[in-house]
Amino acid sequence: MAQSSRLRALQHKNADDVVVTMAIRSPLCKAKKGGFRDMRSDELLTEMFRQAIKHSGINSEIIEDICVGTVLPKGSTYEARSAALAAGIPESVPIQTINRFCSSGLVAVTTIASEIRAGQIDVGLAVGVESMSWNPDVGPDAASDEIKACGPAADSLQPMGWTSENVAREFSVSREDMDEFAARSFQRAEAADKAGYFAKEIVPFTAYQKDTATGARKRVTISKDDGIRYGTTKDTLLKVKSAFPQWPPSRTTGGNASQITDGAAAVLLMTRRKADELGLRVLAKYANVAISEDVDLFEINEAFASMYVHCVRKLGLDPEKVNVNGGAIAFGARQIATGLNELERRGGKVLVTSMCMGTGMGAAALFLGEFQ
């Protein structure tokens, strides 16, 4: 299909374009059981900063702002600032944190891109990080009587499992459809892992693990995701019990919802002018509009299969373009690094990444691949 005039206009290169010059991620590991189970969240973030500096191709002194998307740490800005300093980023580089639940990492990228587009900075680093081992999600505190009396306000405090069941019921998403999709997510992730597709986006992480004999912590290198369940089929998933029997129709299970995960990702953004000045390879241009038929790949956060199935149906998306290497059901969210890596491998041009989040919100972003 010929590219639309709108897409050709978006692809026009200007010195003030916001571009991505690095998109990397850690391995994604099962919380409580995986490779990062004994690693503090501030240690995970410190290592992500170290790897970002190592792979950025720049002196960290020229970074003008850092935005860290993270949800669970109680002192997130303290963790972010101290981790940056411990990783060797100068005191002169400011940092901020943002919490928008599942989309926090994506919104961190959008925040940095907006600062660059507004002319506030030329170079910025966006990071997403979460350790569900170290900071388990305990949910909201008890609500006030005023909030309880307001239907939408009270609903916004409900857990996402409740939302998943509502979606399944209201939009007639069957358990069979959910498990069929979930199985495909695992199978795609397994195939991509075996083919080595993730190797380019994953940077090996130095982690700490406890010695089972002595209890002492030792340093190990983690270089692969450990949450992909090889050999998963629809039939095996249909045997898994409901995770939320208290909320009819109770179709969500531990097999068709995202696992709890420890991991991190980093994206370096700057003006095209600055990338050219520094001699850096441009991976993609950050944009905010597109024509749907021009999209080569979609990365949708698979928090729950009910949501994914409904989105694909409602939007009329081609399943062969959506989460082609699996998604959060298989191993967690890391969508920009994975999406751009696969876009380059396919020789594609347009990536759309979107994420649901708690409290009834969502977020999306568009990237135009260049891979100079």
TrEMBL record:
CC annotations in GO: peroxisome
Catalytic activity: an acyl-CoA + acetyl-CoA = a 3-oxoacyl-CoA + CoA
Chain ranges of the Thiolase N-terminal domain: 18-272
Source superkingdom: Eukaryota
Pathway: Lipid metabolism; fatty acid metabolism
Xref: CDD domains: thiolase
Thiolase C-terminal domain: residues covered: 292-367
Any one GO biological process: fatty acid beta-oxidation
Keyword Transferase part of the UniProt annotation: yes
Signal sequence coordinates: none
GO terms of molecular function: acetyl-CoA C-acyltransferase activity
Keyword set, alphabetical order: Acyltransferase, Transferase
Sections of the chain in a coiled coil: none
Family, similarity comment: Belongs to the thiolase-like superfamily. Thiolase family.
Name of the featured protein: Thiolase
Source species taxonomy: Eukaryota, Fungi, Dikarya, Basidiomycota, Agaricomycotina
